[in-house]
């Protein structure tokens, strides 16, 4: 079976949830899933469930990570190093045949904040193993990525509680 490239993008809620759903479906069919998270703290509730799945592995971002607009220059530099390391771990896992499905969660955020080079992402898409299913999430993917993707699903925000000052709620938004 040929693996394809999926993009879940847009300003709406549910990009990561869609990627995890696809990953759980794949896991339930015996596929090995690796999810690498960028720019997300590791407090999201789904991790508790995903830990229980034998073939679903998560490489989280650091435990406490600020929004990039809150970071100092030094913190941005450190975060860029971490993003590069996460991406290299993902590529190493792919090259080592460790996963059938690779989810790069919020990878477009890392690219758009200049914490990860888009050329590396494009290179992965172009040179991925034929059978690898690649899932990419985040806002504002670059045109080259959209062109290379097989699936592009835009999740558009029409209304969100955050716009009314309601903060993220445990178990719903994280």
From TrEMBL:
Short name of one Pfam family: CobA_CobO_BtuR
SUPFAM superfamilies: P-loop containing nucleoside triphosphate hydrolases
Membrane-spanning residues: none
InterPro entries with a match to the protein in the record: CblAdoTrfase_CobA, P-loop_NTPase
Protein's UniProt name: Cob(I)yrinic acid a,c-diamide adenosyltransferase
Organism: Caproiciproducens galactitolivorans
């Amino acid at each position: 079976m040929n693996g394809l490239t999926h993009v879940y993008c847009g300003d709406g809620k549910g990009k990561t949830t869609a990627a995890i759903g696809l990953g759980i479906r794949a896991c339930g069919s015996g596929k090995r899933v690796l999810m690498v998270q960028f720019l997300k703290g590791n407090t999201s509730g789904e991790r508790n469930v995903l830990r229980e799945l034998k073939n679903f592995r998560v490489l989280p971002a650091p435990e406490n990570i600020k929004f990039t607009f809150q970071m100092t220059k030094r913190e941005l530099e450190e975060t860029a190093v971490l993003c590069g390391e996460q991406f290299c771990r993902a590529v190493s896992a792919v090259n080592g045949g460790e996963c059938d499905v690779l989810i790069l969660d919020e990878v477009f955020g890392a690219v758009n904040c200049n914490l990860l080079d888009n050329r590396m992402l494009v290179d992965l898409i172009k040179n991925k193993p034929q059978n690898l299913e690649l899932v990419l999430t985040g806002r504002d993917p670059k045109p080259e990525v959209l062109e290379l993707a097989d699936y592009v699903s835009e999740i558009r925000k029409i209304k969100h509680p955050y716009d009314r000052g309601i903060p993220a709620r445990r178990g719903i938004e994280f």
